[in-house]
Specification:
Radius of gyration: 34 Å
Distance between the termini: 68 Å
Helix content: 55-70%
Shape: elongated
Order of helices and strands: HHEEHHHHHHEHHEEHEHEHHHHHHHHHHH
Number of strands: 7
C-alpha cells in the first residue's frame, strides 16, 4: 500500500471519528437559549478575525494563530456544547470563505479540532475542573487540559506526516514540539486571560481581547515588513544583489552543523584580471562589471537551487548541496565557458580577450575541521587554477598544494603532521599557522626570491609557532591580560621552537625563522634584540606576515583590527618594528587581493 493511500485512509478514519464524537457530544445542543447566541456569534466572529489577522513573527514562516485560545477559554467558561457549536459554524464559514481549498481538508481540520476540544474538556473535568468563572485554584486542570489539547494535536498531525513522508514518529514529534511549544504556552496563558476577561466583563471582555489581538497582528505585520527589509540589507551585497560574505558564513556553518546535505560541494571563483579592467576603465565601470557578473551567477544558480554569494572584492562562492565534487567541477567549468561567450563592454582589453574567471572546487570531507578549512581548500584550488594560466577550474584533491610547492610537498605534509598537535591544545595557533602559511605562499611569489628562499619562507611560516606546544593551556588560551611572568613564558616559545626544530636535521634551515620572527627592525624584539639586517631577511619578512595576521584575527589577549587598520599599523611601524623594504610590497598584495581602499 502506497504512503499516499495510507494517508488517505488515515484522514478518512480521523474525519469520521471526529464527526461522530462531535454529534454524540453536542446532544441536540443547537437549540441553546437565545441569551447565549449573542456570545456564540461573538465567539464565531472572534475566531474568524483571529484566523484572518494571524500574528506573523520573524524569521520567515513563523506565525501565531490564537483561535485555540478562544476554544479553550470557551471550554473553561461556557462548557463543551457552546464551544463545539462555535467550532461547527466557524468551520462552515471557513469552508465557504476558503472555497478553493479541497473539501476534505476542511473536514479533517474540523475533526481534529473536535477531538482536541473534547479530549481537553474531559481531562479538565476529570482532574477537578469546574466550568464557569476562571479560578486560580483550578490552575492544574487548566494546564492538564492544555497539555492534552497540545499532545493530541502533535500526535494526530504527526501521524499524518509520518504516513506521507515515511519519517520516524519520534523525529516528526520532536520537530513539531520544538516548533510549536512556545505558541501553545502562549495559548495557555492567553486562554486563561480571555476567560478572566469574559468572567469579569462578559461579551465586552471578548471584544476587548479580540481587538487587542487584531491590533497586535497589524503591528507585528508592520514589524515583520521592517524585519525583512533590515534582514535583506544585512544579508545581501548591495552592489551585486547576491548574498554577502557574512550571510554565506552563516549558511555554510548551518549546513555543516545540521548536516542538511549528505553531499556538499563548494566553488570559489575569482574574476581574472579584474584590477586591470578597473584601472583601465575606472571604478564605475568596474562596479558595473561586478553587477553583471553577479547577475549571471544568480540566474544560473537559482534555477538549480544553489547558493551564490559575493565573498569579497571580485571573489564569489557557490554552495552546491547534493552535488559531488567532480559534478560541481563540470558545472563550474561549463559556467566559465558561458561567461567567456557572454560580452561585457571593455573586456577585450583583458589578456584572454573576454570576461573570464578562475575557479576552485572542493567536496566536503568529514575530516575537515570546520567551515574555514572547507573554504580554504576551495581557495587553494582556485589559486591552483590561477597558477595554471587563469580562465580555468581546478578540483581540489587531498594533499593538493599550490603549484609552487609541488617540489617539496612531502616536507609540508611532515610539518603539518607536527602542527596538528595544536588541534588538541590550541586551535587558534593551528589556524594562525595555516593562515600565515597561505600568506607566505602568496607573498613569496610577489618578491624577488630564489626557489630555495621561497621554500624556506613557506615552510618556516608553517612551523614558526611550534614552540607554543610547550606553553601551558591555561596561559595560551587566557582571555584576560597576561601577567608579566606569563608574558615572559609566551616569549620563550621562540627558543623552545628552535630546540624542537633543531632535533630534525632535515629542518635545520628553518631554525632562523622559528627563533627570530619576533626580532624587530629597531632592535627591541626578542629573543636577542637583533637590529636591522642583523636579523636574516626571511625572518624579517615572516615578522611582517605573522604580525599582520595576529593583529587582524581574534586573539585571546588583544583586540582585533580590521585589514585597513592592520595596514595602518604596518605603515606606522615600518622602520621600527618592521623592515621598511618589504612592508610596501606586502601592503600592496593585501590591498589587491582583498580590495582594501586604504
Amino acid at each position: 500500500m502506497t504512503n499516499v493511500r495510507k494517508s488517505h485512509i488515515y484522514i478518512a478514519i480521523i474525519s469520521l471519528s471526529g464527526f461522530i464524537l462531535f454529534l454524540l457530544t453536542i446532544n441536540n445542543s443547537f437549540n441553546i437559549e437565545a441569551a447565549k447566541w449573542t456570545t456564540v456569534l461573538l465567539l464565531i466572529l472572534s475566531i474568524i478575525l483571529l484566523n484572518h489577522f494571524i500574528v506573523i513573527l520573524p524569521p520567515k514562516g513563523n506565525a501565531l494563530s490564537l483561535d485555540s485560545a478562544i476554544y479553550l477559554a470557551s471550554t473553561f467558561v461556557f462548557g463543551i456544547e457552546v464551544t463545539l457549536i462555535v467550532l461547527f459554524w466557524s468551520s462552515i464559514i471557513f469552508g465557504l470563505y476558503q472555497y478553493k481549498v479541497v473539501w476534505w481538508k476542511h473536514v479533517f481540520n474540523f475533526s481534529i479540532y473536535s477531538l482536541m476540544i473534547i479530549a481537553a474538556y474531559h481531562s479538565f473535568i476529570y482532574t477537578g475542573g469546574i466550568v464557569g468563572a476562571i479560578e486560580i485554584e483550578q490552575l492544574v486542570p487548566y494546564v492538564i487540559a492544555l497539555f492534552i489539547y497540545f499532545a493530541l494535536n502533535v500526535l494526530l498531525v504527526g501521524i499524518y506526516f509520518i504516513l506521507l513522508e515515511t519519517e520516524s514518529l519520534l523525529k516528526v514529534i520532536k520537530g513539531m514540539v520544538k516548533e510549536t511549544i512556545s505558541s501553545y504556552l502562549s495559548t495557555l496563558v492567553l486562554s486563561i486571560i480571555l476567560g478572566m476577561l469574559i468572567t469579569s466583563y462578559q461579551n465586552f471582555g471578548l471584544i476587548l481581547f479580540t481587538s487587542v489581538v487584531v491590533l497586535l497582528s497589524i503591528v507585528f505585520r508592520q514589524y515583520f515588513v521592517l524585519y525583512e527589509e533590515v534582514s535583506k540589507k544585512a544579508n545581501f551585497d548591495e552592489l551585486t544583489t547576491l548574498y554577502n560574505h557574512s550571510h554565506f558564513k552563516e549558511v555554510i556553518d548551518d549546513y555543516l552543523m545540521t548536516k542538511k546535505a549528505d553531499t556538499l560541494s563548494l566553488a570559489f571563483i575569482d574574476i581574472d584580471d579584474f584590477k586591470k579592467y578597473n584601472d583601465y576603465h575606472g571604478h564605475v565601470s568596474g562596479d558595473e562589471l561586478l553587477k553583471y557578473f553577479g547577475k549571471q551567477l544568480r540566474e544560473k544558480c537559482e534555477k538549480n537551487g544553489w547558493f551564490a554569494a559575493r565573498y569579497g572584492g571580485e571573489e564569489f562562492v557557490i554552495l552546491l548541496p547534493e552535488v559531488k565534487g567532480c559534478e560541481a567541477s563540470k558545472y563550474i567549468n561549463k559556467l566559465r565557458k558561458e561567461i567567456n561567450d557572454s560580452y561585457f563592454k571593455g573586456v577585450e582589453i583583458l589578456p584572454h580577450g573576454c570576461l573570464s574567471f578562475s575557479g576552485g572546487v572542493v567536496e566536503y570531507e568529514s575530516d575537515f575541521y570546520n567551515s574555514a578549512e572547507f573554504i580554504g581548500k576551495a581557495d587553494q584550488a582556485m589559486y591552483r587554477a590561477k597558477s595554471e594560466g587563469k580562465n580555468a577550474v581546478h578540483l581540489y584533491h587531498k594533499n593538493d598544494l599550490d603549484s609552487s610547492l609541488i617540489d617539496y610537498e612531502k616536507e609540508v605534509d611532515h610539518l603539518e603532521q607536527q602542527l596538528r598537535f595544536f588541534l588538541y591544545k590550541d586551535i587558534s595557533t593551528y589556524q594562525h599557522s595555516k593562515r600565515v602559511f597561505q600568506y607566505a605562499v602568496k607573498f613569496s611569489n610577489e618578491l624577488d626570491l630564489t626557489d630555495h628562499e621561497k621554500k624556506v619562507l613557506v615552510l618556516g611560516a608553517l612551523i614558526h609557532d611550534i614552540g607554543k606546544i610547550e606553553i601551558p593551556r591555561e596561559i595560551i588560551n587566557k582571555k584576560t591580560k597576561l601577567e608579566q611572568a606569563e608574558w615572559e613564558m609566551i616569549k620563550q616559545h621562540v627558543t623552545w621552537g628552535k630546540e624542537i626544530v633543531s632535533t630534525d636535521k632535515a629542518l635545520q634551515h628553518l631554525v632562523p625563522l622559528v627563533e627570530l620572527h619576533h626580532e624587530r627592525y629597531d632592535g627591541k624584539g626578542y629573543p636577542h634584540g637583533l637590529k636591522g639586517e642583523e636579523t636574516p631577511k626571511l625572518a624579517r619578512i615572516l615578522c611582517i606576515i605573522d604580525s599582520f595576521d595576529a593583529m587582524t584575527t581574534e586573539r585571546p589577549y588583544q583586540s582585533t583590527k580590521s585589514f585597513a587598520q592592520g595596514i595602518e599599523e604596518l605603515e606606522k611601524c615600518s622602520g621600527t618594528q618592521f623592515d621598511p623594504e618589504y612592508v610596501p610590497y606586502f601592503i600592496e598584495m593585501i590591498k589587491r587581493q582583498y580590495q582594501i581602499d586604504k
